[in-house]
Write a structure and sequence with these properties.
mainly alpha
Length: 181
């Protein structure tokens, strides 16, 4: 029996590439979450709009991708545009240690508390904000973040730790202030 000569044709149809219409539909249906990603990365409404529109343009005119990867590709284009616009770089002078260890359960947060957490993300320094949004919210591996941002994986993990500490501290301060009212 010769295994090398077996018929390897498949009856399934080939995977389709996403079209401009597919991306138009995607950016329309997911506008809120894609714009929120742009805003979280840029921390500025005008820059977020430029980032979002750049992502739309890149998806419509850029490299063809499979239809099943269109949503991930759109997020990647948003991230790449935000990096071009902000150019975040590590700030080695910001080696602060915060002694707050708070892990809020996002399912239990009220709308006001979620807004406070988003506000605390927007207050982060550029590099820490990018490291947090990309690695925690976007679930990019540290290696991918470091390649996209031109730094080391260690700088990403350090920035993420600082971001989490600052967010926790801000959240704790806001919770104390809310209880005092």
């Amino acid at each position: 029996m010769n295994l090398l000569c077996t018929n390897r044709t498949t009856t399934g149809k080939p995977e389709e590439h996403a079209t401009s219409d597919d991306f138009r539909t995607l950016f329309t249906e997911e506008m809120s979450s894609l714009y929120r990603l742009s805003l979280l990365l840029t921390s500025d409404q005008e820059k977020a709009e430029r980032c979002f529109l750049g992502g739309v343009n890149d998806c419509m005119q850029g490299t063809p991708v499979l239809k099943k990867w269109a949503s991930s590709w759109a997020k990647c284009m948003i991230v790449e545009n935000a990096i071009r616009i902000i150019a975040p770089r590590p700030n080695h002078a910001s080696r602060t240690r915060l002694a707050v260890h708070l892990e809020p359960n996002s399912e239990l947060l009220t709308v006001r508390e979620k807004d406070a957490v988003i506000a605390s993300v927007l207050e982060l320094a550029d590099f820490e904000r990018f490291a947090f949004v990309m690695s925690v919210l976007g679930r990019y591996p540290d290696q991918d973040c470091s390649v996209l941002m031109g730094c080391t994986p260690r700088e990403i993990s350090d920035a993420r730790r600082r971001a989490l500490q600052q967010i926790a501290q801000s959240y704790a301060e806001n919770a104390v202030t809310s209880r005092a009212r």
